[in-house]
Amino acid sequence: AEHKKIREEAKKKKEEEEKKQEENKKRKEKREKKKEKKKEKKEKKRKREEAEITGETLESENDESNKKQKKEVSGNGKRGEFGIWVGNLAFSTTEEMLKKFFANCGVITRINLPINKKTKNNKGFAYIDFENEESMKKAVELSEQTLENRNLLIKSSKDFRGRPSKVSSNQNNSSNNGSTPSSGNNKSNVGNKESPTLFIGNLPYAATADGITKCFKEFGKIATVRVATFEDNREKCKGFAYVDFANIESAVKAMNSGKKPKLLGRVLRVEYAGEDATRR
């Protein structure tokens, strides 16, 4: 009877251990699934943001967010060969305003005007496709013309100079008027590889090389500051610039500082410059 009692207790203990192990296994699987789901969500968000920057439309019909984004695209929804990128838009600019502005250029086949879900305003840029190359060239010639008191920056959709690079996550869409959405220094929003040159966006019209230098000189020696200006007014900033540090370490230090540099009340967007813009 004593041995039987011992065996039963041992069996019971073993069953409890197995039950405990099974529960731990289920909890672990649940955590892994949650982690995987979070990862997938982050990846979808990254793809949406890349699509907004490049002008591409997403193919997945299962992603509700993609469906919402596709509603923002008028025309046939297909990215054409004769496309333009329009920057420095006022956040209140609408699709209809863009149609009227480019009405004399030719037939528009698509307009992609990304919308900030929080503010319901546009994000400061758009992509427009035309029926032919002649119409596209006419549209590009309108660069620096005014729409809603903003001098537009217009270029071919294949020309990425002076435009925000692809970002991987957490792009800040500020409601401040500017040519690009604002964001602080965040390692997660860097699309280009480490470089001694930084792209600075969301700059005010009154931004100068001296003002930008003051924002970044604490991180190391600055070789040059290249401010993009309008052709008809070299004193007026287009909304972006490049800061060339003397060495890559200083640029990395600025990117990893966690600080959100401000200039004339604007929170600046900072990221590594692309290869074509990096100081040689």
UniProtKB/TrEMBL annotation:
Q: Which domain of life is it from?
A: Eukaryota
Residue ranges with Basic residues bias? 27-47
**Keyword set for this entry?**
Repeat, RNA-binding
Indicate, by first and last residue, each region the UniProt record lists as having compositional bias (Low complexity).
168-193
Which PROSITE patterns would you find in this protein's record?
RRM
InterPro entries assigned to the protein according to its UniProt record, in alphabetical order = Nucleotide-bd_a/b_plait_sf (IPR012677), RBD_domain_sf (IPR035979), RRM_dom (IPR000504)
Residues of the region (Disordered) are 1-79, 159-193
Composition bias (Basic and acidic residues) maps to 1-26, 64-79
Q: SUPFAM superfamilies of this UniProt entry?
A: RNA-binding domain, RBD
- By what name is this protein known? RRM domain-containing protein
Q: Which organism is it from?
A: Piromyces finnis
Supply the source organism's classification. Answer: Eukaryota, Fungi, Fungi incertae sedis, Chytridiomycota, Chytridiomycota incertae sedis
